[in-house]
Amino acid sequence: MLEKMLTVGIDLGTSTTQLVLSELTIENLASAFSVPRITISDKRVIYRSDIIFTPLLSEEVIDAEAIKTFVSQQYHKAGIKKEHIQMGAVIITGETARKENSALVLEALSGFSGDFVVATAGPDLESIIAAKGAGAHTYSEKTRKSVVNLDIGGGTTNLAVFTDGELIDTACFDIGGRLVKINPDTREITFITEKIKRVIASAGWDIKVGQTASVKKLTPLAQEMACILAQSIGAAEKSPYYEQSITHHGLTNNMASDYVSFSGGVADCIAVELGSNPFEFGDMGQLLGWAIAQSSAFQAMAIIPSVETIRATVVGAGSHTAEISGSTISYTGASLPLRNLPVLKLTDADNRLESEPLAKSITEKLGWYKVNEEFQMIALGFEGEPSPSFTRIQSLAKAIVTGLQPLIEKNYPVVIVVAQDMAKALGQALFAELPQAYPFVCLDSVKVENGDYIDIGLPVAEGKVLPVIVKTLVFN
Q1: Nearest-CA neighbor of 441 among 332, 324, 327?
Q2: Please, are residues 303 and 263 in contact by the beta-carbon 8 Å criterion?
Q3: CA-CA distance, 98 to 54, in Å (whole number)?
Q4: How many Cβ atoms are within 10 Å of 37's Cβ, its own excluded?
Q5: pLDDT tens, 276-322?
Q6: DSSP letter for each residue of 401-418
Q7: CB contact at 8 A, 309 and 48
Q8: Phi, then psi, of 371 in degrees rounded to 5
C-alpha cells in the first residue's frame, strides 16, 4: 500500500530565509509474513519558495511576525493549507541561531507543521545537513573518496568531511558574505563584525563603517577570507588570522581531501564574473565568491558541482521512517517515550576501536551536537557485531558509559541504537556499568545515520518490542 505525505523544510539563515515543500511516498517493503518495514520509496520537491533576507528588528532580534507572514504567504502561493502538512524541519542556522529570541521564533512557527524535527542547528549539525543537501555525502559514498563541503553563508562557513560516505569531521569559521554590510544604492558600508574589524586593523586596511565601498577597497579583505577558507581544509599555510576566524573548532585533521564542493549563497557567486553592481545584495558575498574563484589554492583542487547551493540546507524536510525494534532489547520504563533525539552514529572505524579510544571518540563527537556550548541529549547509533564475545560486550558497555559521561552528568537517559541483533546482552552490560536505576534504552535491528532524529514509543507486544520512528532529513 502506498501513502503520500507532505513535508516542509524551513531555514532561517544569517542572510536568507526560505522553505521547501516535498511529497514523500511511503511504502511497506516487507512481505506479508514479516515485521512491517515502512520506508520512503520516492521523494519529490513540489515547491521551492521565494528567498528573502532574514527579517530583523535589530542586529540582535529576529522579526518573528515577518517570518510567520512569509511562511503563510508561501503556503498560499503553493496552494496548500498548513493542516495538510504532516511533518517538517525548522532549522535556525549561522548568526541567526545566536539571536536573543531564536527560541521564541521556533515556538511561533510550531503551528506551521505537524511535527518539527529540529529546533536550533548548532554549527556542527548545520555542517552535516548542508553537506548532505549539497550531495557531498552521496558523492563520497559512490566514489569511495574523501569530500569536504564548504557551506558559505552570510555569517559563517560550515565544513563537513566525508570519506567512503562516512562523516569524519566538521568545523565552522566566521567567514561569510554578510560580515560586511553595504547599502546597495549608496554603497555606504553600514556594518562590520567585530572579528572582521580586528582583521582590518591588524592588516592596516582603510575600511570603516560610513565609507563608500569599492571593489578595490574590499578585494584584499575578500582575498584574505578566501585564503582562510583554503587554510581551513589544509590547502594553504595558516595565516595570523586563521585562529581568530574559528567559530568553535577547526578540522581535527585538515589534510586536503580528494574533492571539494561548495554550497550556501556564496557558492552561487564562485563561477560568476563580477557585474556592474557587485554589492547589489547589500554585502560582499559576490566579491568573496570571486576571490575564491581566483584563489590559486582552490584552483589547484578538484572541485565537484553541488546538487544544491543556496538551498542545500532547506532542501531537507523532515520525513518519517517507521520501524519496530528487534525483540532482544533492554530498557528502563521510566525513560519512555522519547522524542526528537538527534542521532550520533559511530563510523566503522570507531566500531573497531578498543574501549579507551572508543570512549574518547564518543566524547569528542558529542561536541557536534552542542548548542550554545550546552550538550544535547542524543541517541548513540552504531552497526555493532553479529556474534560479539562476552569480553567485547563488556568492553563496549564500558566505552559507551565513559564516552557519554557529559550526558550522564546531566542525568540524560542513555539511548543506544544498534543495527545488529545484540541489544539484550549490551543492555545488561550497560545496566551493570551505569549508576543504580539509571534510565537507559538499548534497542537493535534499527539502522540510523548521522543527521537522523528518532522517536521511541512505549513498548508494545507485551513489552517485547518498541515502536521507533526514524526521522530523516530528506535531501533531493
Answers
A1: 332
A2: no
A3: 13
A4: 15
A5: 889 998 999 999 999 999 999 999 999 999 887 766 555 543 433 44
A6: HHHTHHHHTTTPPEEEEE
A7: no
A8: -125, 125
408 burial level (CB within 10 Å; 0-12, 13-18, 19+): middle
Neighbours of 261 (CB within 10 A): 27
For residues 445 and 6, give the distance between their C-alpha atoms in angstroms, rounded to a whole number: 27
* 140 contact partners, CB below 8 Å, separation of at least 6: 146, 147, 162, 163, 164, 165, 166, 259
Residues in the chain: 476
Name every residue whose Cβ is closer than 8 Å to that of residue 73 and which is 6 or more positions away in sequence. none
What does 358-396 look like in DSSP terms, one character per residue?
A: HHHHHHHHHGGG-BTTBPPP-EEEE---SS--HHHHHHH
User: Three-state SS for 210?
Assistant: coil
Distances (CA, A) of 211 to 17, 188, 201, 202: 29, 6, 15, 19
CA nearest to 16, candidates 52, 47, 49, 50: 52
159, 263 Cβ separation under 8 angstroms: no
Lowest pLDDT segment from 259-268, 311-320, 334-343, 449-458:
311-320
CA dist., res. 231 & res. 225, Å (int) = 10
Q: For position 97, what pLDDT does the model report?
A: 59
Peptide bond into 337 cis (omega under 30): yes
**Do 307 and 132 meet the contact criterion of CB atoms below 8 Å apart?**
no
Residue with cell 504532516: 86
Burial class from Cβ neighbours inside 10 Å (0-12, 13-18, 19+) for residue 252 reads exposed
